[in-house]
Amino acid sequence: MNDRLYGNLIFELSKAGRRGYSLPRNTFGSYEVPEGLRRQTDAQLPECDELTVVRHYTNLSNNNFGVDTGFYPLGSCTMKYNPKINEEVAALPEFQNLHPCQPADTVEGARALVTLLERSLCALTGMAHFTFKPYAGAHGELTGLMVIDNYHRQRGDLGRKKVIVPDSAHGTNPASAAVCGLDILEVRSTADGLVDLEHLETLVQQEGPHIAAMMMTNPNTLGLFETAIPQIAALVHGCGALMYYDGANLNPMLGVCRPGDMGFDVMHINLHKTFSTPHGGGGPGSGPVGVREGLQSFFPQVSPYHGNFAVLMRAYAYLLSLGRDHVTEVGPLAVLNANYVKESLKDVYELPIEGLCCHEFVFDGLKDKSTGVTTMDVAKRLLDYGYHAPTIYFPLLFHESLMVEPTENESLETLDGFIAAMRQIAEEAKNDPELVKTAPHRTPIGRVDDVLAAKHPVTTYKKMKSEE
Ligand SMILES: *Cc1c(COP(=O)(O)O)cnc(C)c1O
User: Fold this and answer.
1) Which atom number of ligand 1 is nearest to the Cα of residue 287?
2) pLDDT one-digit tens code per residue, 206-220
3) 338 in Cβ contact with 332 (< 8 Å)
4) How far apart are CA 55 and CA 58, in angstroms?
5) How many CB atoms lie within 10 A of CB 128?
6) Taking the complete model, does pTM exceed 0.85, yes or no?
7) Pocket test for ligand 1, best of 133, 165, 172, 407 (most atoms within 8 A of CB)
């Protein structure tokens, strides 16, 4: 591989005296930097010609993997396609150049957008009000739990400091509860992957007056619909606690059913997941929190203004482009795609829980365990075939979890290509396990040492070659 293209920092490509920039004419006049703030020595900037700079960054961008470059079946993350029109809308200068402290009568369009998006989300979820302040799903969980905590306190019910969380829950659920100062009561899953009602009953009997809420994801993180929600909600409400819905998996429910109708009192939506904002790089996100009528006065101040406003614009553009009629197709198509992939692979990958799944499903590694090829190996080998790895080793219910969420956007051809690659890897595991165990072979960087990287993170680059 050409080291010049892949291995170097822009600083290493620097040659003293090379130039390749042209600045636009200064139309602002000059401004004298105060004496004490001026640098004493020149900044150490790379000196490169324009073509070197263009190649460097273009090649770096080619090493990146995103929804726009290939299939990205990362379970639980809903890596759906983000329509380009969303970006155009979010970049409209009339919105982008707004200042949050502008007089209200100059931002009526932005205020209308917030109101209309709130109304749409209420219609889709059955909630009565939303706050857009939270910056992400986890931030929404914290905000929602603060609403619940405020609700109990305001009633003088000060002993409710525990939150029931299923053992299949996303790690952010117990983490958010802890940040909110609440303790966790873990409720077990049955062999079918659903909340164990008997265990829940026991917890409610033992801890009733101390329980603030139960947090649930539905469909849960195994991609299974929690069919006993009415009984669960009755148990939880019966002891005076509230029901919290983690809306990260709202996608398959879109237009099909609503958490508000199932007895949930408070919820968040991951706008960046379900309503299409690019989020592979970790942000920006938005985790609006919805509540049923009567709870809106308990919204806390968790950020200034309306949070990440540009994400709201993308979400609203996405909703308008689908419209009332087509938004109802999102969920069923996501479910169809997931079941198609699952059924096409379950003879070679271990499917611990049979039956219809929702938008995602979990395999417990390869069916043939005798080869020693692990879920990690399969995920690494998928990179060689040009696919992003699925979510692996989550949920924690199985040893070799491999979680696939194809989303509603993918064509039959793409799904068939992925299925063929997964079957090919299963073949390789049988005939040439070393090939899979040492994968990836076709990426710029091979297998990294995860443990070393976690224990000894090196956050600075090696000494620059020019200084050696
Ligand atoms: C993604 C996710 C979260 C956390 O959302 P962020 O926006 O990443 O903070 C919580 N719960 C589930 C089930 C998720 O998939």
Assistant:
1) 7
2) 999 999 999 999 999
3) no
4) 5
5) 15
6) yes
7) 172
